Every structure is written in structure tokens, then in C-alpha cells.
Amino acid sequence: MSQEPDHTSLLTDSPVNVADSAALLLEALTADKDHLFTVIQTHRAEVLQAALRNPNLDSKHLGAFFKRRGVGPLLAAIYAHKRLMESHSVKVALVAHPDTPPHIAQTVLPLLYIFDLLKLCHIPGVPADIHLAAERKIVQQLPTQPLGNKLTMARRGTAAIVEALLREGAQNIIEICLDNPHLKEGALHQFLTSSHATAENVSLVARNSRWKNRPNIRLAILKNPRTPLIWFTLFLPGLPAATRLDLLASPRLTFAQKELVRKSGSRSPA
Fold first, then answer.
1. Is residue 230 in a domain?
2. What is the 8-class DSSP label of residue 86?
3. Residue 178 backbone dihedrals phi, psi, to 5 degrees
4. Which one of 46, 114, 119, 233 has the fewest CB atoms closer than 10 angstroms to its CB?
């Protein structure tokens, strides 16, 4: 039983007679825009190489081409093609393709916009080193980004990006970061022990329905000398005696905070 050819498979070098080969190459070089979509589905590397030199080839054709696997050598040819590389979408697709040689992907990546980099972080199959490089580039650019971009990054950023935004300490950004599904408890705990955890920022965490009931987060809130007293009043009841003793021994807490810890202990049942 015959099967349809798999256009996503690796390129082949199956033999073709000279006349047919010449005809295929001429077709690839001269095809109009519509027919080029058919030409680029071929499995023959030399035909695809010829199609890359067709003046009618544009980013839409390459969009179909980039969906294929096993075309690494031709991706290098695209990178070497000055006209094709003028397209921003081609740059993004080239970096995102799993078959792009690493040195090419790393060279093109700095040419992308910050939201292109964020897109790379969420595309399945992007090589781990490219994912990491995109994250690092975003983190480097965050301090100079306008507020709107930072708010978007707070909503959609990866764990590393959200952690970097927390370190900036901006209250309106932190509030959004707390609801980002990629935010990890360890990163938030570290934030609560840092100088960026102001009274206002601590209160944001203490009010957040996702985080306020987590024991380690509550304890980090209670160990912060800038935590408003209201959170001691709300979080201390039911706290184990050993934990209260640990809080009383902390050199970081203020006198008023420790007084509330002492009073909570005296009200606890024997």
C-alpha cells in the first residue's frame, strides 16, 4: 500500500538522472511565489539550495521551510544569505530552530527584540543553551526597559526573569510577579530576606492567596524587621513554641515585634 511522502523527514540525496536534475534546479530557481511553496517541500538538498537563490523566495516561504527537521546545512545557507537575513521573522525562526548550528543561533540571538527573546523561552524544542542565553539577555536588559515591558515580563516571564524583577523591588511589578506560575517559593523566600522586602512589599506577599498560607513564607515574613505588626498579630496564633523562641532570639526583629511574639506565647495554652 503506497504512502504519502513525509515532508518533515530528513533531506535525501537519492539519485536523479542529469536531465531531471537540471529541470528540478531550473524550476527551483525560477518558480513563482505560489509554486515555490511546492518546491520547498522537496527532500533534495541541491534543489532547496537553488530555491534559496530564487528572487521570489520570501519570509512566508521560509516560514514553511522552518517547520521541517533535518535541514541544518540549509539553515547555515540561509544565515549566509544577506537578503533573507534582512527579515526579522527569519532571524527569530533561525534562532528557534533546533537544527540551527549553535554558533549561528548564538550570533543571531543578540539581534532579537526583548519580546522575541521571551517567545524563545516558551517555544518547546528550543535548545537549552539558547533558552538560557535568551533568559540572560532579558535579565541584562530589564533595568532599562519601560514599565509596560516590565509588567508584561512579570506576567509571562520565566522563573529567572521573575526572580530578577523581584530584586528590583518595585511594588506594582512585585504584585504581578506573585501571580506568575513560574515564580518559585525559594526565590520568594530569598526576596523576603533581602533589602528589597519593604513593609509594603512584605504586605503584598502576606495578602496574596497563593503564598500567605505557606509555612516557610509565613516564617520569612515574621523574620523580617520591616514586617508591619498586623502580620504578627495574624500569623503568630498557633505558631509552635520552638518557632516563637527562634523569633525571640533573632537579632533582626524590632522590640515591638518581639513584644508581640512574647504576648502570643503567654496567651498560648499550657
1. yes
2. G
3. -60, -25
4. 233
> Tell me: the pLDDT tens digits for 158-167?
999 999 999 9
The C-alpha cell that represents 112 in the structure block: 532579537
129 CB-near residues (< 8 Å, 6+ apart): 102, 106
Q: How many CB atoms lie within 10 A of CB 151?
A: 18
Q: Does residue 51 belong to any structural domain of this protein?
A: no
pLDDT tens-digit readout, 75-104: 998 999 888 899 999 999 999 999 899 999
Cβ atoms 217, 188 nearer than 8 A: yes
The Cα–Cα gap between 74 and 116 comes to: 23
| Region for 5 from its dihedrals, namely left if φ exceeds 0, alpha if ψ lies in -120 to 50, beta otherwise | beta
The answer to whether residue 56 is domain-embedded is no
Phi, psi of 236, rounded to the nearest 5 degrees: -70, -35
* Helix, strand, coil % over all residues of the chain, rounded to 5: 65, 0, 35
Q: What gap in Å lies between CA 100 and CA 117, rounded to an integer?
A: 16
Boundaries of domain holding 214:
152-270
Q: How many domains does the structure of the chain reveal?
A: 1
